[in-house]
């Protein structure tokens, strides 16, 4: 089955000759939440702008709900809503007129019941007749979401929804996104925060220098992140892992001088205390221990750095 958003080999070279997207392919399922994670200038905004039809791709193809974003622009555009990075609101406008105006821009038929329900869902109903300048920062962000959803799109794009907001507001935004998912909306968000991607997304795509480096289920990535290694330097080298230690996930390195124990940081017990006991029962003595973690942060930084190095070498 084709995904709600199908991106095949999308490229974007800006007028000045800068290539911001270098052949990105990605399929996003209906009802899925995908987070695009990447450093500044990676191409996240460019990618979502091309899907929304704001920027023209210069190569490849992008379809939303089966409609090509270039050839079938109107149909594709009517299926998407975009919450931009910047707070762009008219201070004297009311919440109600802002959302009604946005719906009108899409040529959608007036439907006050839908808009009322939307405001309720976003906890803005009480503020329906307030001017936008009277709202708190968090409420203004919700108004942007309400505007983006005013024409009942199937796909919602959130470009850095929590950039520069405090922790409480960030969590509030995460709750809103979770609620929207329940209504079946497909959500694509960009973020710099790994924690945010983890909290909200079903899948995470890492983008760097215009390339999609990986797309993986959040749970799989987090499982990888949860793995930690305990490096045990032995007082004397051994040739093989002793029989009595076969229950543990152990491997030998450094010509038998280091035993490496891999464990899950998210498990209830790491097994380290028991392992130390078993090592001494097996007659091994420990010279030193050290732990290392392959965090998503490291995976991410490592991936991005590798790209940079390759870029420099090219
Ligand atoms: N209109 C434009 N003309 C030329 N280059 C552009 C244009 N818009 C973006 N770029 C360049 O394309 C690259 C990708 O930019 P983009 O805004 O997509 O990155 P991003 O991943 O969204 O970054 P950030 O996290 O900082 O928002 C950057 O190097 C940027 O300078």
List the helices and strands and how they pair.
Blueprint: E1 5-13, E2 19-28, E3 33-37, H1 44-51, E4 59-64, E5 67-68, H2 73-78, E6 80-83, H3 95-105, H4 112-121, H5 137-149, E7 155-159, H6 167-182, E8 186-191, H7 194-200, E9 203-208, E10 211-217, H8 218-225, E11 227-234, E12 250-253, E13 258-264, H9 272-281, E14 286-293, H10 296-313
Parallel strand pairs: 3-8, 3-9, 6-7, 7-8
Antiparallel strand pairs: 1-2, 1-4, 4-5, 9-10, 11-13, 11-14, 12-13
Helix pairs in contact: 3-5
Description:
The protein is α/β, with parallel strands linked by helices and 314 residues long. It has two domains: 5-223, P-loop containing nucleotide triphosphate hydrolases (Rossmann fold); 227-294, Alpha-L RNA-binding motif (Alpha-Beta Plaits, 2-Layer Sandwich), CATH 3.30.70. The protein contains ten helices and 14 strands. It has helices at 44-51, 73-78, 95-105, 112-121, 137-149, 167-182, 194-200, 218-225, 272-281, 296-313, and strands at residues 5-13, 19-28, 33-37, 59-64, 67-68, 80-83, 155-159, 186-191, 203-208, 211-217, 227-234, 250-253, 258-264, 286-293. The strands form three sheets. Strands 6-7-8-3-9-10 form a six-stranded mixed β-sheet, sandwiched between helices. It has a four-stranded antiparallel β-sheet with strand order 2-1-4-5. Strands 12-13-11-14 form a four-stranded antiparallel β-sheet. Helix 3 packs parallel to helix 5 (137-149). The chain is elongated. 32% of the residues are buried. The structure holds adenosine-5'-triphosphate. Adenosine-5'-triphosphate is lined by residues 14, 16, 18, 20, 38, 40-46.
């Amino acid at each position: 089955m084709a995904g709600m958003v199908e991106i095949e080999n999308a490229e974007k070279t800006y007028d000045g000759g800068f290539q911001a997207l270098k052949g990105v392919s990605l399929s996003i399922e209906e009802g899925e939440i995908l987070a695009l994670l990447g450093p500044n200038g990676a191409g996240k905004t460019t990618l979502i702008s091309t899907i929304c039809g704001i920027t023209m791709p210069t190569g490849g193809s992008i379809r939303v709900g089966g409609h090509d974003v270039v050839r079938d622009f109107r149909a594709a555009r009517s299926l998407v809503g975009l919450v931009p990075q910047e707070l762009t609101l008219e201070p004297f406008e009311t919440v109600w007129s802002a959302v009604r105006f946005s719906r009108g821009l899409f040529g959608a038929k007036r439907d006050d019941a839908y808009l009322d329900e939307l405001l309720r869902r976003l906890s803005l109903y009480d503020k329906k007749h307030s001017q936008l300048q009277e709202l708190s920062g968090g409420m203004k962000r919700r108004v942007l979401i309400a505007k983006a959803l005013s024409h009942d799109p199937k796909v919602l794009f959130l470009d850095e929804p929590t950039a520069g907001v405090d922790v409480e507001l960030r969590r509030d935004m995460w709750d809103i996104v979770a609620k929207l998912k329940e209504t079946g909306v497909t959500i694509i968000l960009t973020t710099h925060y790994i924690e945010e991607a983890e909290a909200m997304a079903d899948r995470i795509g890492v983008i760097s220098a215009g390339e999609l480096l990986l797309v993986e289920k959040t749970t799989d990535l987090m499982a990888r992140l949860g793995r930690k290694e305990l490096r045990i330097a032995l007082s004397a080298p051994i040739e093989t892992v002793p029989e009595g230690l076969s229950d543990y996930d152990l491997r030998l390195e450094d010509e038998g001088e280091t035993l490496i124990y891999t464990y899950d940081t998210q498990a209830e017990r790491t097994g380290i205390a028991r392992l130390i006991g078993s090592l001494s029962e097996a007659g091994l003595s420990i010279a030193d221990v050290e732990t290392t973690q392959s965090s998503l942060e490291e995976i991410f930084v490592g991936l991005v750095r590798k790209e940079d190095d390759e870029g420099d070498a090219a």
